[in-house]
Amino acid sequence: MRYAIYFTPPAGDPLTKVAANWLGRNAFSGETVKPPAIRSFEAEEVARLTVEPRRYGFHATLKAPFRLAENLTERDLLSALMHFASSTSAVTIPRLQVAALGHFFALVPEEPVLELDQLANDVVVAFDRFRAPASDAERAKRRPETLSISQLRNLDQWGYPYVFDDFRFHMTLTGRVEEKDRLRVARMLDAFFEPVLSEPVEIANLALFVEAEPGAPFEVHSLHPLAHSSLTGARGRKSA
pTM, whole model, 2 decimals? Predict the structure, then answer.
């Protein structure tokens, strides 16, 4: 069993529904979703583009997947998560946009949100005591030979390369996209997600995801509302 602390909008949020339609799986129910019909894109091509992010579900990583430390239980983790969330303020992203991050596409904030970066930093530190040390095999999967000095330091200290100065909030939409296809994919994703990107997105909860066994799809275990919500129901994004 592995756990991860992510952000994802509530199950009924329009962005969640559109993202599940794109990825082909609903992380709340675990159900497969029929691939969308997109002009000039065959269903098989969409399935290939989404095979990697489909397993993880629609999310933004705050604390990357980890096994529980031997002396701690799921109940301990849930208690800490509820306490942390109830004493932490929600954060608003004014607008998300589709962007290429290296070889893949994701939804990212149009402009930096310092409060969001701080929230991610706080989650990494607060929940690191729950993380069992990475095995040699788990560390190798991060391809340490490709990492920068700071990313390698993060991997060894925090179990994940992309934290603190190396963190960038993103909600992954595709796996690797070949360079020759990137403009076509970018235009398609812009059009597909445009209807649900016009409003602010409130980071109003922390989501606990679980991977029941190695290689299994990640599913939402529970949502934990943050305190001091700043939006009041825009597009249903205020977490219940």
Answer: 0.93
